[in-house]
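Morning!

This is the sequence you dropped in the shared folder:
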Amino acid sequence: MTSPAAHGPGPGQGATAPAADATQAAPAPGRDARLDNAKFILIALVVIGHAIGPLGDYGPASALYYWIYFFHMPAFILISGYLSRSFDGSSKRVEKLVLTLAVPYLIFWTIHQAIHTVADGSLPESPSLLRPTYALWFLVALFLWRLSVPVWKRLRWPVLVAVVISMFAATADLGGTLSIGRVVSFLPFFVLGLSLRREHFAYLDRLWVRVASTAVLAVTAVLAVPISDRLSKDWLFWTSSLTDRDIDPLLPSLGLRLAFLGLALAMSVAVLALVPKRRTWFTDLGAYSLYVYLGHSVVIIVLQSSPWYGFVSGPLGLAGMVAFGTGLTLLLCTPWARGALRWAVEPRLTWFLREDSEPRQEGRAPGDARATGTGVGGSAVPGGTGRGSGA
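The structure's back. Tokens below.
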């Protein structure tokens, strides 16, 4: 879920915004099929995870939920970091970053608040634009991470520094403003993605890596059962401080946080190793992850505000919501769904820009979203719009 304008070419990608997903035109040639495949699979897991979340009282649903949350956003963020390597902090890049992440954030924050207002029958007690609603934290995080890219490029050991920040920031109560807890907690995955190079992906094709990756996903699926019974979901969300847990915030809390970092990394690598590196029927759909990420948030909030989950339970309920999440992902990738959402996901604010603004000039030219550089988990998101978020 990244904004294409912000990153440069990935493996096998051109300099255009590979993550730009929003138009009806076919994805640009030269993209890395492995990353597009991974983005589609991960965004589908995001939707499925949100769809089955309220079924947590049913053991298998809880275990599946935990397994998905072990890695789905860390993997998306790692890809987003890799695709953000070309962000240089220039005024052109920052302006596009605002248009492809900040503006959609404001639009969907307003939509989310409107739904909650109707459902609750009253206005929120203290609505604040600085407190992301539902899945919008990823847009805030990606915005801040992207702005910090030039800093990480200057450091000798950026990943180590990011891990230290992530670990010890969790010992302080950071509050909910700008979802800063998640911003610093997930930071190591973004910085690791920034540090990767094309040749690193070649290691994923080795037989022993694929075999080990299969074992990692199988073992973690089994471990998700007892872990879902014993550990709070707070460990999965990476948002609250370690000081509010029932165990010591230093030991074993820091040890558990480090273990979850390692678990998420191992599973992220496993997924990237096992997804097809050739083109598949869903490769092109990986370009539309921001549409899915933002669009599904509205649907899930409406469902959670309705009596729906009061009638859904047990194995049939779980199977039904997994199928629903999969279908919703595919639906939001269709041309007509993207057309209906484009005003909010990829708003054309030429009326708001000066005549000499780069995005305004691009807006006059024919073409598709690849020209604007938007997209979730894009190749050029969870967290901007183009090809290529997370939640």
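Headline: Residues 223 and 377 are 28 Å apart (CA to CA).

More detail when I'm at my desk.
O.
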